[in-house]
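hi! just following up on the protien thing from before. the input was this:
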Amino acid sequence: MMEYRGGRVSLKQGHARGEHRVWPSGRIHGAEAMRRKKPCAGSTTVAVTLAVFLLFFTLITLYLFAAKYWRPPDPITSFGREIDQQFARTFLITGIVFVLSQLALGWVVFRFRDTGGRATFSHGNTTMEVLWTLATLVLFVGLGIYAERAWAEVHFRGAAPGALQIEVQGQQFKWYFRYPGPDGKFGRTDAQYVKDSAQNFFGLDPNDPAGKDDIVTPVVAVPVNREVELILRSKDVTHSFFVRELRLKQDAVPGMLIHIHFTPMQVGQYEIACAELCGLGHHQMRSFLQVLSDADYQNWLREQAANQ
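and the predicted 3d structure came back as:
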């Protein structure tokens, strides 16, 4: 403790034990000042404001999702419908968790606002921590199990015999598609024959008779209600084949042939985008998928063959 004696301040051993200090003015400093603080209303206004904000934020978020402002176009495959169902399940479960957690956060902010009292320490609740960790694990694993069938249909199960095969090549910054000719066989390819100026984007071997009738186009057309198998490849860097109406996104990786398949069920034209940043001209890398009736598809094939 410090005392004022005849114009001098003296220090007693009590100061070493953490006792408060008294100055000539009578002011009290440090922890003692906090202990002698008068109770007050605290941060009620701030707590109520934050709690109300969280409530309105939650309600606005729910409205935006319920109104479906960012809903994608309807899928044109059965696989796409399964993907949408998976999204709906995920949004429902995470939406419930989101609402409950935001409301709980708002209540905690208000309930434990500063009221001028002393803070108390809590080490938490081990049982509750174990329970919500297990609940999260069950939700994630459960959603994964629900999605297994749709995922396996595209990535683990091959196309049925007789599916229409089309090679898809991504290159900076174009998509090209190759169809087998009337013989139903793809011609042999070799990197040494690749020459864009001669329109030989795939490197077709000119000495292979099977490649003489192959059809190469910058757009792809398929018949409706027939299974299509795409064989993806890349000429330079990693690209990603994406058609939102198919709900399909698959990388095209240099040196690999990647197979995916689908059966379109609706006639129309749909944009093909590259969903992988592949260089400065990435934004230009787009094409179109045309789903045609059988008759229109055969006419389209004849037109493309005549232009080779």
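Residues 2-35 form one domain.
Residues 223 and 281 are 31 Å apart (CA to CA).
cheers
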